[in-house]
Amino acid sequence: MAVTLNETPSGNRLHIGIFGKTNSGKSSFINTFSGQKVSIVADVAGTTTDPVYKPMEIYPLGPCILIDTAGFDDEGELGALRIEKTSLAAQKTELAIILFCEDEMVQELKWYNYFKKRQTPVIPVLGKADLYTQEQKEYLIQMIQKNTGETVCPVSSETGEGIRKLKELLAEKIPEGYGNRMITGNLVSKDDLVLLVMPQDIQAPKGRLILPQVQTLRELLDKRCLIMSVTTDRYPAALQTLSRPPKLIITDSQVFPYIYENKPKESMLTSFSVLFAAYKGDLSYYIEGAKAIDSLKETSHVLIAECCTHVPLKEDIGRVKIPRMLKKRFGENLQVELVSGTDFPDDLTGYDLIIQCGACMFNRKYVMYRIDRAKKQQVPVTNYGITIAHLTGILDHVALPE
User: Fold this and answer.
1) Does residue 97 sit in helix, strand or coil?
2) How many CB atoms lie within 10 A of CB 143?
3) DSSP 310
4) Backbone angles phi, psi at 101, to 5 degrees
5) Which residues form the Hydrogen maturase F dimerization domain (predicted)?
6) Which of 28, 40, 269, 297 is least enclosed, having the fewest CB within 10 Å?
């Protein structure tokens, strides 16, 4: 994924999902909550089809993605597809809002329990509060609290009642440590010299950098590191101009072997993909999963999961380079299947290995959902950078963030 330097990636924003029945007022609520016309509002059931993802800044929450979802009680064949999309949105949700609108709340409680099971903070909201008498409102709040044990926030999209209080409750519910994860972990600190080797090939169009490079560069600036960025062909010249070896060299995984063979012995080496393995996923599980590579056979079945939905380009790492490396070792009959975007099979038992990309476009909540599903089905998972480091025999020499 290529971006300009001033873009804020959606995967780094707090994902707030709004859930409820059809015509529970979700779209009106999200418009009032955000202060913008994010979603279409109509009295027709099923107005919201695919979830609407709206990035914005909301005080006191900071950068967020608001997710307006279809009703989880939608009906019919099309309704089932809408509910499936709502379930996908739930997998990405880091803070959940469930709109209650009546005393029949079986489905709302089902979804409440779903989020609690996944350890996703959830706030029950009594929507359309302006339509109830005070007695009705108190009764419904009491019923919701009895079934959830949570503080219930009554809100009105018409009057704005409760919106400010809800934002305060959401701020209190932000998962502990959220936003504190570091891409480079403890590998470098202030005044450390870091050399970034960033190939500018067809994957990174002229004038832009790919997203992991942008995010890593920004973090190193925040850490007050000394940074030098070069393309692969200028790597030797860059080393010669430095008065001291870099503390850390971060490279594209595709040129791992070349950079390793020509690095100063004092310098640590890692890759953007390896860093994102820890930042977005489960690094220890990825490393354990890489060991499964050695057990592959020509009859094995490998799934490559690419988060981006970019148009395939020449020498694409997930579609071309990694499959070529695997088939060179295990034979041309090795089955390699690729999925992209949010496409991910429910049944993973037919695969001997899953290789996940760095997932710069997804939030960690969704990546960990994929990993947890693979764990439950006892399928090993690794990622692009770990795979290439293992296949080239240098994984033991790669610096891993903590």
Assistant:
1) strand
2) 16
3) P
4) -140, 0
5) 184-281
6) 297
- Tokens representing 383 are 């990622």
Nearest alpha-carbon partner for 85 in 68, 102, 108: 68
> All domains of the chain, ordered by start, with CATH?
8-173 (3.40.50.300), 193-275 (3.40.50.11420)
Cα distance between residue 395 and residue 402, in whole Å: 16
Task: Please count the CA atoms within 13 angstroms of the CA of 111 that sit on its side-chain side.
Answer: 28
Triad 12, 312, 364: Cα angle to 5°:
20
Model confidence, pTM: 0.84
Question: Tens digit of pLDDT for each residue in 322-374?
Answer: 999 999 999 999 999 999 988 999 999 999 999 999 888 899 999 999 999 99
What would the two tokens of residue 211 be? 């997203």
How many other C-beta atoms can be found within 10 angstroms of the C-beta atom of residue 149? 9
C-alpha to C-alpha distance for 254 and 272, rounded to whole angstroms: 10
Q: What is the 3-state secondary structure (H, E, C) of 270-288?
A: EEHHHHHHHHHCCHHHHHH
